[in-house]
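Collaborator request log, item 7. Partner lab (contact: R.S.) asked for a structural prediction of 30S small subunit ribosomal protein S17 to inform their binding assays.
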Amino acid sequence: MPYQPNHMFKGVVTKAGVMRKTVTVTVERIFEHPKILKEIKRHKKYLVHDEGEVAKLDDKVTIIHGLRTSKTKSFRLQSIDARDTRKYPDEPIPQILSEPQIKARKQKKLGVLEALNQQKVASL
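Returned to partner:
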């Protein structure tokens, strides 16, 4: 069964090119206050993994929650929805974005009791 993410957000790239393979995306949400019934804007910034370093400043992007890439990055760039053609007239929007390269986990060393139990099971 393929991975079904809980968190997919649309936002704007507010910082790009400062950190390697990382962009900062600001996601804005609008909701109605329960008591005063007034619309309120809130925003949150996410560090997003950009494997090919294709996102530019002020791009409208879709990000998706996935495996943690570092201590603060657990989102990755899924698609670039729009780009400002006045700032970047010669650069088209890339259609295919590369997947993040995930390192294999290290094998856990067995303790004495686990090694004995594994030998016992193997002999049976």
